[in-house]
Design goal:
InterPro entries: EXOC6/Sec15, EXOC6/Sec15_C, EXOC6/Sec15_C_dom1, EXOC6_Sec15_N, EXOC6PINT-1/Sec15/Tip20_C_dom2. This protein is mostly helical. 74% of the residues lie in helices and 1% in strands. The protein has a two-stranded antiparallel sheet. The longest helix is centred in the first third of the chain and has 62 residues.
Length: 657
């Protein structure tokens, strides 16, 4: 199990090295050197480098050969094109020379003869369908009507004004009436035959009816397609007769029909409904796990309008601003949003299919589907989302995408309400109708992801703070300005790149994460000052910490996340700032005089904190100044520290009393 976790951790580190900015790679490399499998990681890194080299070489070889082949083919085509051009020129020249020998008068005479021959053939062809015997010899009515239609509308008008054409045109209506009467007679015989044999039970009767129906009905449909005004007459007559026959055949006898008791069967099916629902929940639990495990937690890129319509047909995305953007563009959510939404609809269909033929009312079916869907949302999908959020190796980018995804799924819940109402024909505002709990499910998942972001962000900050290496006994540097610590510069660069990813998050989430990070940095630096293991602190160390806090305030003042009013973010560092101002400016008279007043300059400095830090400075003063009793300046400073400590203790005692 340990080797599997080590392999997963190495894979995460490799992905972070490939995708992380070089300014933020310090903690990642530290986690590599802190691990116990350093050699194994280096082997995996070398394998990953060799794999990329092979892919680059393979791609170059593939495209190079195609380029060479294309140049070769182009050279061949150029030669063939020159040959073709010379041949066409030569052929045109010879054709022009041969055409000069033919006289224009002979050519005109030949064209007149050719036109007369074509006209004669055309007239004779139009007169061929005019043979009345061909119509009368047709056994089926459809070919006869088709021939009459072709003769009337196509052949006779094109044949010309001949006597036999007018005679045939006068006989066409009579022939059409004769065919209609004969077809109606055959239809009546067909219906009577069906009624006569409908009471027969068994395979022979079914085959006979099927054969008769197959032979006659297609002919009837073919005939109906050729009449403009009689189609409705035939269809209404046929439907009326068949409806009467159906009532006679399907009407049960008074002593039986279909009188078997089935109430116990329906009761059993209703009892099985809960078990079937549990089976569906287990099946969809596996499906949701697979969808979440296979997701890349990245926005979906779309390059064409066809791809955009494909995803919007699966999920009801309504974003007019996104629609106006040109291609290529990205959808805000990842693949698991449309997949989860489609799976929710599939689950609803599965519940609806089970409720068919159970003789339940629409309201009962609607209630059953909504309750089952609520179980799917609150139990199955909720647990799967929590599993995806809490599992190892989930980075901040993935958590941000989870929040975006759950926000869009939450906004789609009313579409699911409408979907259920459409398939059950029960309005969503019906009294006592069960409401879907999708909104609360996705809200809970989003809040869990937000809390995980705050935790992961603070853990990442702690990794940077572990690199802090302050010299607590550093001397005060005369002149010049101090530079911020290297670890803090890397930490701020990491925070800037991280908060740039938070642009798609809801405003309050990004603001809370930023404020939480700043407070965590301030609290951690304060803990470094008050660490019991740090027994001595010099004024030079406080100056270095003062510079680092100033760098943090510069980061906060730049507004890494939009939405903060004024210097709100600077309040996270106010406790540490006032404490360092008090010590670096040595303004104890102001602090002691104004303590407890609302307008106090050092209102956020706790006297216990100030006393603890001052005692560490006194220890430094005692040990560093061995000959302090021989120097008046050091002796006076030591007395001043002792006096301030005494006053602080009196102040604490007074307020405690």
């Amino acid at each position: 199990m340990a080797s599997v976790e080590t392999a997963a951790e190495h894979e995460r580190i490799l992905r972070e090295i490939e995708s992380t900015d070089t300014n933020c790679i310090g903690p990642t490399l530290r986690s590599v050197y802190d691990g116990q499998e350093h050699g194994l990681f280096m082997e995996k890194l070398d394998a990953r480098i060799r794999n990329h080299d092979r892919e680059i070489e393979k791609m170059c070889n593939h495209h190079f050969q195609g380029f060479v082949d294309s140049i070769t083919e182009l050279l061949k085509v150029r030669g063939e094109a020159q040959k073709l051009k010379s041949q066409v020129t030569d052929t045109n020249r010879r054709l022009q020379d041969d055409g000069k020998e033919v006289s224009s008068q002979e050519l005109q005479q030949c064209r007149v003869q050719q036109r007369n021959i074509a006209t004669t053939i055309d007239k004779l062809t139009h007169c061929l369908p005019g043979n009345t015997k061909r119509v009368l010899l047709c056994v089926r009515y459809y070919p006869a009507l088709r021939t009459l239609e072709q003769l009337e509308h196509t052949c006779l008008p094109r044949a010309g004004q001949y006597r036999f054409c007018s005679i045939m045109a006068e006989n066409i209506p009579k022939l059409r009436t004769q065919i209609r009467d004969t077809a109606m007679t055959q239809l009546r015989d067909f219906l009577e035959s069906i009624r006569k044999h409908s009471d027969k039970i068994g395979e022979a009767a079914i085959k006979q009816v099927h054969k008769t129906h197959a032979d006659t009905v297609p002919a009837v449909h073919e005939l109906l397609s050729l009449w403009a005004g009689l189609r409705d007459v035939f269809e209404n007559y046929y439907r009326k007769q068949r409806r009467k026959q159906a009532r006679l055949v399907l009407q049960p006898h008074s002593n039986m029909g279909y009188g078997f008791p089935v109430s116990q069967l329906f009761d059993m099916l209703l009892e099985m409904r809960e078990q079937y629902g549990e089976i569906l929940l287990k099946r969809w639990n596996i499906t949701f796990r697979q969808v979440l495990d296979q997701d890349n937690y990245s926005p979906i890129p779309v390059s064409t309008d066809q791809e955009y319509k494909h995803y919007t047909s699966q999920f009801p995305l309504q974003d007019p601003e996104l629609e106006k953007l040109p291609f290529p563009k990205k959808l805000p959510f990842s693949e698991f949003v449309p997949k989860v939404y489609c799976q929710l609809k599939e689950f609803i269909y599965a519940c609806l299919k089970y409720s068919e033929d159970l003789h339940l009312s629409s309201t009962e079916v609607d209630d059953m589907i909504r309750k089952s869907t609520n179980l799917l949302l609150t139990r199955t999908l909720s647990h799967c989302l929590q599993y995806a959020i809490k599992k190892k190796n989930v980075g901040l980018a993935e958590l941000v995408q989870v929040i975006i995804n759950t926000t869009h799924l939450e906004q789609s819940c009313h579409f699911l309400e409408e979907f259920i109402s459409n398939i059950t024909n029960v309005p969503p505002d019906t009294a006592n109708a069960t409401k879907l709990y999708g909104t609360s499910t996705f809200k809970d998942a989003r809040h869990a992801a937000e809390a995980e972001i705050y935790t992961s962000l603070n853990a990442k900050i702690d990794q940077f703070l572990q690199l802090a290496d302050y010299d607590w006994m550093a001397a005060v540097q005369g002149g010049g300005t101090l530079d911020a610590s290297d670890y803090l510069i890397d930490l701020i660069a990491f925070l800037r790149s991280t908060f740039s990813v938070f642009t798609n998050l809801p405003g309050k989430v990004a603001q809370t994460a930023c404020m939480s990070a700043c407070k965590h940095i301030s609290t951690s630096l304060m803990q470094l000052l008050l660490d019991p293991e740090v027994r001595q602190i010099s004024m030079g160390a406080l100056h270095q910490l003062y510079t680092d806090v100033k760098e943090c305030e510069s980061f906060a003042r730049a507004g890494p996340v939009a939405g903060f009013q004024g210097d709100t973010l600077l309040l996270a560092f106010s406790d540490l700032r006032q404490l360092l101002d008090l010590f670096t400016q040595w303004d104890w008279s102001t602090y002691l005089a104004d303590y407890g007043k609302p307008t106090c300059k050092y209102l956020r400095v706790n006297p216990h904190t100030a006393l603890a830090l001052l005692e560490k400075m006194r220890e430094t003063s005692r040990k560093n100044n061995v000959f302090a009793q021989f120097r008046k300046t050091d002796r006076d400073r030591q007395k001043l520290i002792d006096t301030v400590i005494k006053q602080l203790r009196n102040l604490i005692a007074q307020h405690h009393t």
